[in-house]
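Something for you to look into today, if you have time. Just paste the record in under my message, thanks.
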Amino acid sequence: MDGFRAIVVAMLAALLAGCGYNDIQRADEATKAAWSEVVNQYQRRADLIPNLVATVKAFAAQEERVLTEVTEARARVGAMQVTPEMASDPAALAAFQAAQGQLGSALSRLLAVVEAYPDLKSNQNFLDLQAQLEGTENRIAVARKRYIDAVEAHNVLVRQFPVNLTAMVFGYKVKPNFSVDDEAGIARPPTVDFGREPAPAPAGG
């Protein structure tokens, strides 16, 4: 019986191959690869934070509240079980996005306090971390955009007739995506630049 079932499944797969099965496979793998890159870039950002917090703390220990917010937000991100399956679970994906958003907000508040500390702004270690962070924010924006595009392409494909029949037979469903309130914001990541001194005021006030 098992052998007969295997033959039937193989025949069905062969029949459906011309109805988009291979295309679905490629689209599914593309979303998985794009998701992996998103996770890698967010992890890269998280890995920079301990050194950034330590550097800021050396010059601005009194900013305890902001430092604590960043540390706690990073801890929440680190406590999440990030798996490939998470990308297919709307609730899990939303929780992941929310946690990363909270970390990004806390990080922005931390960087904002730097303006009040000229010695920190000119510290070489901070400048190096700043450059790495800015590059990482750019890579996050690119990775997110590629993932959004990959999921949209996958979802369009599995809704199309007759590919949708093949998708239904093999259990391929529409995937949840990042909620993007501002597509332009994704394409134009925030600038992290606290290394430049403000221009001097014109003489004579």
